Amino acid sequence: MDLTNNLINPNTAPTTSNSTTTTNPLKRVRLESDDWSEKTPRSRLLERWKEQDLYIDYLESRVHQLQQSIESNELVREKEAECNKLKSLLNYRFLTKTTQQQALDQMRDMMQTPSLARLRQTYLDPSINLIYGQMREEIENSRKACDEAQNELRAWQFTADSKTGKMLMARCKKLLEENEQLGKIVSSDNVAKLESEIALQNRLISNIKDAQTDYEEIMLDMDTNMDAMSNALLHMRHQLSESHRQISLLNEENARLKTFCQSTTNTLNTPNGISLSDSPL
Length: 281
Description:
Family: Belongs to the fl(2)d family.
Keywords: Coiled coil, mRNA processing, mRNA splicing, Nucleus
Order of helices and strands: HEEHHHH
Largest sheet: 2 strands, antiparallel
Number of strands: 2
Structural class: mainly alpha
Pfam family, one: Wtap
Number of helices: 5
Radius of gyration: 72 Å
Subcellular location: Nucleus
Shape: flat
Main location: nucleus
């Protein structure tokens, strides 16, 4: 706040330059109309210029101070946030430690004075109940593992007179009987299956024989029909040859008749033995 006030009111703050230190408050340099005239001496302009430089240096120093203050404020905020996180973490750890300490105190009190009312009160606490549940599960698992180990030890110490040996022998006898029964069932099933297959094959063979006899009868009928057809074809071929022979005879006779007719017509057309070709026109 002081820096901003000093920046807003620069007249109240002292300034320092690179060469001289002034105790008078700095002000903004304002050029008047007399300064712009041609009659203004050069020394006055240089003085105004130096005052302006001093004022600019003062403003730059103030800006630098403000930037440093802003950066320091940001660092302070970051540190404050880290401190808050650390504080919350420490509070959480403190709460967890206190709850654990309370649980341990309750367990210690319960172990010192294990009354029924106190046990009920401790079981109402969820953390104590959870711990006891886990302990109970671990005890049950350890008991099961111990029983399994004892059973394995007894199995390794097998004797025919021991209890486990007698149980195993009885179990083996029972398994042998069951195996024999299963073998009988399987063998009887195999015999029945073979008998059914044989009956089926006999039925197929009888069907094939019947089909063979029918086929042979059909072949005999076809042979007889073929013989009859061959005889008919031979007879028809003989008739065809006879018809061809008769046709040739008739053709020859027809040719003779034609020649005879021509000769008779020629003799009739030429009386006294004169032919038509020799008669005058």
